[in-house]
Amino acid sequence: RLRPGARVAVVAPCGPIPEDRLRAGLGILRRWGLDPVVAPHVLDAHPALAHLAGEDRARARDLTEAWCDPSVSAVICARGGFGAQRMVDLVDWGAVRAAGPKAFVGYSDVTALHEAFAVRAGFATLHGPMVAAGTFLSDARTQESLRATLFEPETVRTLGLETARALVPGRAHGVTLGGCASLLAADLATPHARSSARGGLLLLEDVGEEPYRLDRVLTQLIRSGLLDGLAGVALGSWVDCGPYEEVRAVLHDRLAPLGIPVVEELGFGHSATALTIPLGVPAVLDTESATLTLDVPALL
To answer: Which of 16, 123, 175, 277 has the most CB atoms around it within 10 Å of its CB?
Structure first.
């Protein structure tokens, strides 16, 4: 867990960062008593591709150096977008493993890095808000969920918003994994990709994917065998994915035949309020209470 005065590094592994939003996010971290340090290339612009925050090697070097800096207690991403898949193989994962675990926070495109930390380093991470993301800047409950997870992790072991409900009833125990559904599908068959989620509790959310594209993504995950033996599924937000009743029909059609518990609208992802959900932590998914309860605090 973090304590007041802890140094946290802010990195930009994906898209470009608006400087005003970065300043606002850093202000929130400082009000929590943290000492945020911005990595050297966070405000870079790629020389040819406007959707990237600087060149791939620079973004990868920022992450590697931040992780390996013994004075840094946590690494928080500035925003998502696209770009993590371009730089993930350029991170020095041997050095990351040697440096040991610390808190890592992000979501959306950062799903590729959550998977890499799990598979290549064996570290748990936090699916949570990013420093320059609109939800983090505007929503107090989103901020508090991350703050409590970082500073008082024992107080946020039972997770779920009031919107959460059963899609497929049941109760399951497993280790959490997942993130953005389309990014998980894009990771399939790449070097070092996870080959199985057997026994796991899979978190899924996405943004801007119409129902037929969500069908394709979920079908790809199923056909790949990744979901064979999965214990349960927790679903987050589906912002700009079309009418929710259409999205829900796809989710039920694809996931119900797995015969495992599924909770919908748990409260994470691109939603107006986004809870911080630990990945790589054993937990219980209970559709009767519509909650995800961690066996242990996210951070020690």
So the answer is: 277
